[in-house]
Design a protein that fits this description.
mainly alpha
């Protein structure tokens, strides 16, 4: 029965990741809880590695958005605008069922980079930079889903062995 609950937590975490919710942290907490409640199941090493993977996923999510913004000619201000806009957009999108936080994060990254770059340049350059921020956000989301899949596999393998 315990393994069924762990599988449900891991699947819930995987579903949460694309929506900009803390799915990797839910999976890490599930692994920790399972290791504490079911003796001799998931090792401390696995729990620590899974938590580090969740941290790496968060770092990647924020840095890729900024990196793509800069790659498309954006300023440091536009990079921060994309990061902050993505966070604010995800939070504001939560009331819209199912896909609100995803759309909000993408729109927020675009608008944040656009507005920040517009204060220093033209509309054309701001649009190019904001497009870079949007692409960066999409790549970051895909990378984080990949990390989440690796975490899920590791957790479930460790629990079943």
């Amino acid at each position: 029965m315990e393994i069924v609950i762990l599988v449900a937590i891991v699947l819930l975490g995987l579903v949460m990741i694309p929506f900009g919710l803390p799915g990797t942290w839910i999976m890490a907490a599930g692994a920790l809880g399972y290791s504490l409640l079911v003796p001799n199941s998931i090792s401390i090493f696995t729990t620590v590695v899974v938590a580090l993977m969740a941290l790496v996923g968060e770092i990647i999510e924020f840095t890729l958005t900024a990196r793509y913004t800069r790659k498309y000619g954006g300023s440091r201000r536009a990079s921060w605008g994309a990061i902050i806009g993505g966070i604010v957009g995800a939070i504001m999108g939560v009331p819209v069922p199912v896909i609100g936080s995803v759309i909000g994060a993408f729109v927020g990254a675009f608008v944040g980079a656009f507005v920040a770059e517009l204060t220093q340049g033209s509309v054309g350059s701001a649009t190019k930079v904001a497009t870079g921020a949007l692409i960066g956000r999409a790549v970051a989301a895909a990378m984080k889903v990949g990390i989440g899949i690796a975490m899920a596999a590791w957790i479930l393998f460790a629990a079943m062995v």
